[in-house]
Recover the amino acids of this structure.
């Protein structure tokens, strides 16, 4: 009888091992591998316009995949991909009327600084904030901070995910 008990325990352990193995295999296959050639596919339907053939080391595809997986955590408040940088926070509160006050602060900011993009954001458990600008470094946004502080004395830099800079500006 003790031999039968050990046999059942061994089967139970093997079964547990197989379940863990299949679950972990499912998790690892959920991470998609990206090929560089997939990034440059035509989306306009005109496949006769030309072809792009990329010849490169397969390790580059691995690096691109790692970069894309890491950048999933870099979403801006609007939900688009971005990069680490700074914005100038001009309003932050969680009082009952914070939503209305944030809207008023943003409207006032837009009236005084129409050339600087501003964002009204929400953070759990009930904080409303107004942030302005997309600066890669504090040095890049320092002159704007000085201008903004003349109208909003409590303004300060906050590290956040910002929109990618516009490369078409000349």
């Amino acid at each position: 009888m003790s031999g039968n008990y050990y046999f059942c325990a061994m089967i139970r352990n093997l079964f547990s091992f197989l379940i863990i193995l299949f679950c972990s295999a499912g998790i690892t296959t959920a991470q998609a591998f990206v090929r560089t050639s997939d990034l440059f596919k035509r989306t306009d339907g005109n496949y006769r316009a030309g072809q792009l053939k990329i010849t490169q080391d397969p390790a580059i595809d691995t690096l691109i995949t790692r970069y894309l997986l890491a950048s999933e955590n870099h979403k801006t408040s609007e939900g688009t991909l971005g990069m680490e940088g700074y914005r100038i926070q001009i309003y932050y509160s969680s009082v009952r009327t914070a939503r209305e006050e944030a809207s008023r602060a943003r409207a006032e900011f837009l009236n005084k600084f129409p050339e600087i993009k501003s964002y009204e954001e929400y953070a759990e458990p009930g904080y409303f904030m107004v942030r302005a600008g997309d600066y890669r470094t504090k040095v890049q946004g320092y002159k704007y901070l000085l201008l903004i502080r003349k109208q909003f004395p409590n303004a300060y830099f906050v590290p956040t995910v910002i929109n990618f800079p516009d490369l078409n500006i000349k």
Remarks:
- The helical segments are 2-29, 36-39, 58-71, 98-112, 138-151.
